[in-house]
Amino acid sequence: MLSDKMKNKFHQPHDAWLSLKHILTLVRLESKSSYQIGFCQMDSSTNDVIRDCPPFFKVYKDGRVERYFVTQPVPAGLDRTAGVQTKDVVISPAVKARIFMPQSTTPGQKLPLLVHYHGGGFSIGSAFDTVTYKVVAPLVKQANIVVVSIDYRLAPEHPLPIAHDDSWVGLQWVASHANGQGPEPWLNDNADPSRIFLAGESAGANIAHFVAVLAGATKLVGLKIRGMLLVHPYFGTREPNDNELDKYVCPTSTEFDNDPIVNPEADPKLKEMACERVIVLVAEEDGFRNRGEAYYETLTKSGWRGKVEFFETKGEGHCFHVVIDNHNTGVLKNKMVDFINKDI
C-alpha cells in the first residue's frame, strides 16, 4: 500500500501524468530523499545525476537520459483478437508512424482517418507501445476507421517545440496522400482525406491542438479536418507555475505557460483552427481537469466558428482508460466513437 507520504504527493498537479505502471515505479522509489512527483530535482544520492524528473526521466552528467517508464513495444502485424492490422512507416529520418486499420476492409471503400498523438509529458511514450495500442486499437475496430499514430521525438534529448514540429511533419505527410498518389498504399487505398480527425491524450492532446491551429493558419491543402478529440488534455495556463519539468522540456521558452505552443489562451491564431468540431474529454479526479475546462471556455470565446463539446467522467483520474477496463472506460470509448461517426 502507498504510505501517507506518497498519498499526499499525489495531490501535486503532475499526479495527472501517472499510470498504474508509474505508480508501481513510484512505490519502489519512495525512499529517495530527492523525490517529488512531477518536479525536476537535483539528486543528492549520486554525483552522476544532474537532473531528476520522476516519473519521467533523469539526466546524467555525461548526457545520458534514463527514463522511469520503459516503453514496451507491440510488434506490427495482424491481430485477430483486437480485429486490427498494423504497419510501421518512416515519414522522415526523424519521424515514424504506425498505421492501424480494421482487420477486414472492403476493396474501394475509403474510411475516415484519425491522426493520433500519444501522451507522456512530451518525454515518454511511443506510437509503437502497449499504451498507444490499448488506446487506438479499440477505436479502429469500433469506429471502423484508419489511424496514423505519429511517433515524435522526445524531450529532454529533443526539447520542445521539436515534438510539435515532428507532429506537423506527420500531418503534412498524411496530406500528401490526398490525391491518392502518396508514398503509402494503405492510405492511398483506404483513407478518405475529406474525413480527417485529430486526437491525442494528455500531452498528445496539446500537440493535436497545435497542428490543428497550424493547419488553419497555413491553409494546409488536401485534408478536411472534421473533428478533434482532446482526451484529458495538458495545456499551460496563465496561473503561476514553479514546475521545473516544464522549463526543462522547453528551455527556449522564457514563460512556458504563456507560450502559444502549450497555452491556447496565448495564441492569437486560435480562431483560425482548421477543425469543424472539437470534443474536450476530462476526468473529475484529474489534476489537469481545470485546464481542459479552461481550454473549452477559451475556444468558445475565441471567435473560432466550429462547435465544441465538453464531457466529464466522474470519479476517475488522468488517462484512467489506459490502465483499467471498467464501465467508465467503456463509456469514454463509446463517446469517442460516437463523436467520430457523427455526421460522416
UniProtKB/TrEMBL annotation:
Gene3D superfamilies according to UniProt: alpha/beta hydrolase
Domain Alpha/beta hydrolase fold-3: start-end pairs: 114-321
GO molecular function: hydrolase activity
Similarity section: Belongs to the 'GDXG' lipolytic enzyme family.
Name of this chain's protein: Alpha/beta hydrolase fold-3 domain-containing protein
Organism field: Gossypium tomentosum (Hawaiian cotton)
